[in-house]
Design a protein that fits this description.
The protein has 581 residues and is an all-alpha fold. The protein is built from 26 helices and no strands. The termini are far apart.
Length: 581
C-alpha cells in the first residue's frame, strides 16, 4: 500500500455501520444510564445510622434526580392523576401532626413529590420517547436478575465476600439486597414483567433464548424466597401473560412487531416454580434426603395460613380503627396506639408500625374518610382507564408492574421504600399521561433540570442532617471529629430526625430525681415514636419519682401485656419497688 493511500485513509472520516452508530448514540447511552440508576436504587448496599431505610430512600431519590438530568423532558401527567396526587398530599397535611412527628410527615410528603416527579418522567413516553420504556424495563430486569443470582448464592450460603456488602439471611433463605423476602420476591415479579416486555420487542432468536434462560433463574430465585406474596404475584403474572399471549395469537389488536412466548410455555413456568420449591431444599441438604431448609409448601398449609400473625395483626388494626373511625390515630401513631390498647382477643406480639395493608393503614392513622378518598380516587382512575381492554404492549407492562406493587401493598408496605416509589411513579406516568393533543401539556428540558437541582438540594440537606444525628449511634472513636464530645447537645435542633435524637437521649440518660420531669416529658414523646421496653422503663421510673403512681401502674400493665418477657426481666432487676399489678 502506497504512502499516499495510507494518508487518504487516515484523513477520510470513519463511516460507522448503522448498528455500531446506533450503539454509540447519545440517546442509547442516556437510556443505559437511566436503566443503571433504576437498578442501583434496588442494589445499593448503603446502610447506616438508626434507621435502616433512610439511606436506601435517599439513594433512590438521588437516582430519581439522575433520571431528571438524563430525561429528554419532564412531561405533565393527566389532570386526574395530578388531582389525585394533590388531594393525597393535601389530606396528609391537614390530617397530620406537625409537632414531634413533623419529620415523618415531611418524609411522606417527599415520597409523594418523588412519585409525582417520576410520573412526569413516565408520561414522556406518550410523546414518542421510546428510551423511557426501555430504561424502565432494562433497569428492573437487571436489578432482578442480579438479585436472583445473589439470592440463590445466599440460599446455599455461598455469597462469600458479597455477604459483607449486604445483610445475609440464614442458610435456606434468600432476600438479595433487599433484606426482606417479600420485597425480594416483588422485585423478581417486577423483573419478570419487564422481561416479558423485552422478549416481546426482541426480534433476534439468540436474545430471546437468553431472556428465557434469565426467566428460569428468576423463577428459581422466586421459589428460594419462600414468599407466599411472591407466589401469588408469580401466579397472576403467568396467568395474565398466558392469556395475553393467547389473545395475540387469535388475531386480537396487538402490534405485529410484539410477540410474547407461546401460552403453554408461559403456563409451564408454574409447575417449574413448584419443581424448584421441591428441588432447592433437597440440594441444600446435599441430596441425602435430610432436607434441612423449609419449602414454600410448608407455609401454604391451611393450619399455618389460618394462624398467621398477619391475621392477628389485621384484627388488632380493625379494633384500633373502630376506636377512632373518623380521624384516625394520627400519622405515624400506629405503634403507640397498638401499645396503648388492651385487646380482648389475641395481640400482635411485637411493635406494630404499619398495618401491612395500605387501605387499613390509611384508615387507622388518618381515618376512614381519608382512606376512602385516597383509595377510592385511585380505584376510580383505574376503572376509568379500563385495563382489561388494554392492547398496547407498553401500557400492558406498566399495568403489570403496577399490579405487582399494589398486590404487595395489600399485604405489606412496599411504597414506604424508595425503589418501589420510583417504579410506582414511572408506571403512573406511563398510564396517565397528559393528552398529546395539547402542546401546553408537554414538559421541557429546563423544567427537568430545575426540578433535579431542587431535588438534589433537598436530598443533600436530608443526607447532611441524617449523617449528623447518626453520630450518637456510633462509638466515640468512629464519630466525626466535631461530634466526639458533647454529642447530644450538638444534635439538638434537627427537624427531620428529631425523634431519633430524642430516642438516643432517653436510652442513654439515667432517670434521677433531678431530671425526672424532663425525662418523663421526653420519654412520653418518644413513646409515640418507638414504644419499646427501654423507653417504657424510663417513663415508668420517671412517673414514680414524680409521684404519679396511677400512671406508672397503667404503664406497667400495658408493659406486661405488650412485652411479657421484657417485663419479667425488669421485675427481676427491681423486685422491691416495681408497681404492683
Amino acid at each position: 500500500m502506497t504512502i499516499r493511500r495510507i494518508e487518504r485513509l487516515h484523513n477520510e472520516p470513519v463511516q460507522l455501520s448503522p448498528t455500531r452508530s446506533a450503539f454509540l448514540s447519545p440517546g442509547r447511552a442516556l437510556c443505559g444510564i437511566r436503566a443503571a440508576l433504576l437498578a442501583f436504587a434496588f442494589l445499593s448496599p448503603l446502610v447506616a445510622g438508626p434507621s435502616v431505610t433512610v439511606w436506601q430512600q435517599l439513594v433512590s431519590w438521588i437516582c430519581l434526580a439522575g433520571w431528571l438530568l438524563c430525561a429528554p423532558a419532564l412531561a405533565r401527567p393527566a389532570s386526574e392523576l395530578t388531582r389525585w396526587l394533590g388531594a393525597s398530599a393535601a389530606v396528609l397535611v391537614l390530617a397530620g401532626t406537625w409537632g414531634a412527628a413533623g419529620g415523618a410527615l415531611a418524609s411522606a410528603l417527599a415520597a409523594l413529590v418523588a412519585i409525582a416527579l417520576a410520573a412526569g418522567l413516565g408520561a414522556s413516553s406518550a410523546d414518542g420517547d421510546v428510551s423511557t420504556p426501555k430504561a424502565i424495563a432494562w433497569g428492573l430486569f437487571s436489578a432482578g436478575l442480579l438479585n436472583a443470582v445473589l439470592g440463590l448464592l445466599q440460599y446455599y450460603h455461598l455469597a462469600g465476600d458479597l455477604a459483607s456488602w449486604f445483610a445475609s439471611p440464614p442458610e435456606g433463605r434468600a432476600w438479595g439486597t433487599l433484606r426482606q423476602r417479600n420485597q425480594f420476591a416483588t422485585l423478581l415479579g417486577l423483573a419478570l414483567v419487564a422481561l416479558l416486555w423485552l422478549y416481546g420487542i426482541q426480534s433476534a432468536r439468540r436474545a430471546r433464548w437468553g431472556l428465557v434462560a434469565a426467566a428460569v433463574v428468576l423463577i428459581a430465585a422466586a421459589a428460594a424466597s419462600l414468599s407466599r406474596t411472591g407466589l401469588l404475584q408469580f401466579l397472576l403474572v403467568m396467568a395474565i401473560a398466558g392469556f395475553a399471549a393467547w389473545r395475540e395469537r387469535h388475531g386480537r389488536v396487538i402490534p405485529a412487531s410484539f410477540r410474547l412466548p407461546p401460552p403453554l410455555v408461559l403456563l409451564a413456568g408454574i409447575p417449574l416454580y413448584f419443581a424448584f420449591d421441591a428441588l432447592l431444599p433437597y440440594l441444600a441438604a446435599g441430596g441425602d434426603g435430610q432436607v434441612a431448609t423449609a419449602a414454600l409448601r410448608s407455609r401454604l398449609q391451611p393450619t399455618v395460613v389460618a394462624t398467621d400473625s398477619r391475621v392477628v395483626l389485621w384484627q388488632n388494626v380493625l379494633t384500633l380503627i373502630a376506636q377512632r373511625p373518623l380521624t384516625g390515630w394520627g400519622w405515624g401513631e400506629l405503634s403507640f396506639a397498638h401499645f396503648a390498647t388492651l385487646y380482648t382477643g389475641p395481640r400482635f406480639p411485637v411493635i406494630l408500625d404499619n398495618a401491612h395493608n395500605l387501605p387499613l393503614h390509611l384508615a387507622v392513622e388518618l381515618g376512614i374518610p381519608v382512606a376512602l378518598l385516597i383509595c377510592g380516587g385511585f380505584l376510580w382512575m383505574v376503572g376509568a382507564a379500563k385495563p382489561w381492554r388494554e392492547r398496547d404492549p407498553l401500557r400492558l407492562m406498566a399495568w403489570g408492574l403496577l399490579g405487582v406493587i399494589l398486590l404487595h401493598s395489600l399485604l405489606e408496605y412496599p411504597l414506604w421504600y424508595g425503589p418501589f416509589q420510583l417504579v410506582f411513579g414511572l408506571c403512573l406516568g406511563v398510564l396517565w399521561p397528559a393528552s398529546t393533543q395539547r402542546p401546553a401539556a408537554n414538559g421541557s428540558r429546563k423544567l427537568a433540570t430545575f426540578a433535579a437541582a431542587a431535588w438534589i438540594a433537598v436530598i443533600g440537606y436530608a443526607a447532611w442532617d441524617y449523617t449528623r444525628i447518626s453520630q450518637i449511634y456510633l462509638p466515640r472513636e468512629a464519630r466525626l471529629p466535631a461530634y466526639r464530645d458533647d454529642t447530644l447537645a450538638k444534635l439538638q435542633g434537627s427537624w427531620l430526625f428529631s425523634r431519633q435524637v430524642d430516642f438516643a437521649e432517653v436510652t442513654l440518660t439515667a432517670v434521677t430525681p433531678a431530671n425526672a420531669a424532663h425525662m418523663h416529658e421526653l420519654a412520653g414523646r418518644v413513646l409515640h415514636f418507638s414504644p419499646e421496653p427501654r423507653v417504657i422503663m424510663k417513663l415508668i421510673e420517671s412517673a414514680e419519682l414524680l409521684g404519679r403512681d396511677a400512671e406508672a401502674h397503667a404503664l406497667a400493665t400495658r408493659f406486661r401485656v405488650a412485652f411479657p418477657a421484657a417485663f419479667a426481666r425488669w421485675l427481676d432487676n427491681r423486685p422491691d419497688d416495681a408497681p404492683e399489678l
